[in-house]
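User: Can you help me understand a structure? I only have the sequence.
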Amino acid sequence: MYKKLLDELKVTPEAPIEVDPLFAWHANVLKLGRKKALVLVNDKNRYVIVLYGLKAKEWKNIDVHIKGAIREVFQAECIKEELIERFISSSDRMVFSKTKDRTAVARLNNSSEFVYHFGELIDPDSIVQKDLSLKISTLLVGDGKKSYYLPNEALYKELEDLSGQSVFHTEAVQLKVTLELRNHKVWRRIIVPSNITFSKLHEVLQAAFGWQNYHLHDFLIFPPSSVKNVVALHQNKPIVHLVCTKEAFQYQGEIPMKMETGVKLSDYLSSQILYNYDFGDDWTHKIEVEKVIENHDRNRPVCLAGQGSTPPEDVGGEPGYELFLQIIQEKKHPEHVYMKEWGEDQGYEGFNLDEVNWRLNEV
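Assistant: Let's start by predicting it. Here is the structure, written out as tokens:
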């Protein structure tokens, strides 16, 4: 543990004790704007947990908040409750000591840099930064022997070895997501954990359709209805508008507006949902819940099927997409070569299930 963190806690470091590295964490405190973040890095697998905005009263009870953060982040990973409790109870007495070696310090510094890099994922209304923790823990790290691994997958394996059982207990939902185009069928059938946040669902949809996340987005939540047509659905009044940036609140109307971070899909499973991406080109995706899976054996999204190519980014909406298709299909068109190369640079391609699942595995 860094000296500045020990100073923050106002504790005298205890002598190091021998402990299973799976239950030991190195920690650092960072200043992000006017608030402080606590970064925890697991000694065994380098899994990262981030707490943010801790005030004096939280620092005084930091052991309680650390255990609570471990619980919340592991729950977001869909790890079984009994394994979470077993992990936390194995760390029942929390001991604070100095960092043990330079390697641990270097690894802690690397993880701290990721916190700065992905700072846009911070939820200012929450101490436990689940999305940020999950993101950093999916990034490749080196083991010092010229090989690399993913901290989250290392954690799953270690918990499986510890318990001798499957790590996950996931309630999941099967979704059919359709990109609303007049002349083309473009859809994906995906399975996601039901407790997925809408900010995470946005990442899943970007990967499933091959969007590049260049633009803003939002979600419109409508009351339960038998209406399937998007035009007819828009004639109803949404019950909530989920946005991805605080600037959106400057344009709030009658519809209640919330930040998407922290809001779960499970809260709106019976609702009609629209996902809008790129307010210039205006790509609308209809999200339908096809079924709930009570005990899914994975904690990550997976695509089961799909159809159709996603339009290139910045093609100019549906009219621009039709013109793009016309040009690349007409070999004698003077802009054929240019437009075809531009489309390839934009990642325009046919639906490939393996490619989609490769991207989803990176979310």
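Now, to help you interpret it: The first strand starts at residue 25 and ends at 32. Residues 41 and 108 are 6 Å apart (CA to CA). Let me know which part you'd like to focus on.
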